[in-house]
């Protein structure tokens, strides 16, 4: 039986397939379908059981719950959509609780880079910095934090396809945790093999 932190190729391929599909849906429709997330969960748990036994299944459920618990406050404060939270929970079912933490860090880093890039390209950096300057000034003067939401016409008010950041983060996560995966995939594809 494999160690629960080792990711078999089948799990990696399913995770990457799931996040690519989710990113495409998020870009096209600004939503991630429940059916896709459910598919991820229904594939993740049997695979966890197959590779890691009953303990692996339990860790998959724990990863699901952990991702849901960590990201739920972001949903409740409208920082993330429900589909984003459910997608990360399904990914948690594939990864288990230890590795879902690392994946979350990669996804949040990817979201930060993509978000800043989006602000720069769309010319929204100035209004973003002014708004946060006002919030910091309010904190300095009053001693309490007051969130000032962006105006409707600001770039920062646009819905952000977080599914794209999740996909980018997971590709980085796989590179970090399973560095031989991409090299093996390229070798296999170069020899006419299939995934």
Topology (elements, then pairings):
Blueprint: H1 9-29, H2 34-76, H3 82-95, H4 97-122, H5 125-142, H6 162-177, H7 180-190
Number of domains: 1
> How many E strands?
0
Outline, from the CA principal axes? globular
Q: Beta-strand level of the residues, as a percent range?
A: under 5%
User: By helix and strand content, what is the structural category?
Assistant: mainly alpha
How large is the count of helical segments? Answer: 7
- Spans with pLDDT under 50 lasting ≥5 residues? none
Rg calc: 19 Å
Task: Report the sheet with the most strands, covering strand number, pairing sense and barrel closure.
Answer: none
Q: Strand-and-helix sequence, N→C?
A: HHHHHHH
- N-C termini distance: 23 Å
**Share of helical residues:** over 70%
Q: Give the averaged pLDDT, no decimals.
A: 90
Explain the overall architecture.
The protein has 195 residues and is an all-alpha fold. The chain has one domain. 76% of the residues lie in helices and 0% in strands. It contains seven helices and no strands. It has helices spanning 9-29, 34-76, 82-95, 97-122, 125-142, 162-177, 180-190. Helix 2 crosses helix 3 (82-95) and helix 3 (82-95) packs antiparallel against helix 4 (97-122). The protein is globular and about 55 Å long.
